[in-house]
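Archive maintenance. Older records in this collection stored only the sequence; we are now back-filling the structure field for every entry so that each record is complete. The fields below show one back-filled record exactly as it appears after the update. Entries are processed alphabetically, and N-acetyltransferase domain-containing protein is next in the queue.

ARCHIVE ENTRY
Title: N-acetyltransferase domain-containing protein
Organism field: Olivibacter ginsenosidimutans
Length field: 229
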Amino acid sequence: MPVKVIFKNKIIGVGALILHQNSAWLGHIIVEQSYRGQGIGYMIVSYLIDLAIKNGVVSVNLIATDLGAPVYKKAGFRIVGSYQFLKRERLWPQQSLPDQLKPSSPSFYEQIHKLDQEISGENRRELIDSHLKQAVIFEHEGMVEGYYFPKLGQGPIYAKTERAGLGLMSLKYSGTDAAILPLDNFVGLQFLVNNGFEVQDTTAIRMTYGEDTIWHPDKIFSRIGGNYG
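Back-filled structure field:
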């Protein structure tokens, strides 16, 4: 649900509300540089919060830059987590992939949905339905322990076990030289550093308005994107 602010027939600000079931995300809150400091960003955020509440949302989340964080704090958001950026500076070492990695199939779709809701704390069925066919899963004795959506956003990896998360990371990061993980995922961060990635100065702040979303950052081995989380 995108919105825009127009002044003298010119777009000077934009923002978007991304609705799930009883949760939502704000994304792409941008104000033209020459119009900053006039409360336009705060106006966009307040409007989108009201729109979310009208749609039955009890928890609104976002990823904040250092520039945007003060605006969100003023609107009532609080910090609930942080993400670390990493970049690969050396060649990825040759390594074998776990046998448990396999393409997804319809028999696993419901398990993926349940695992996604368990880790994210949100009902995101409408978002991920169209990506289930392209998913790669870590399967053990008929149970999905983790999944990777290569075509969704930045390629999220969610896993309830370390072996699943690291196995899926081995697949993804053999061909990707940038990574963003929650700071709480110590295992995933150490795995990347051990395999040629270097920690960058860049971080991002996760913030929430309203009720807390019960999520598990230690089980996120690659985030979905800056505009979704």
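Update note: The chain has two domains: 2-80, 86-222. The radius of gyration is 19 Å.
Entry marked complete.
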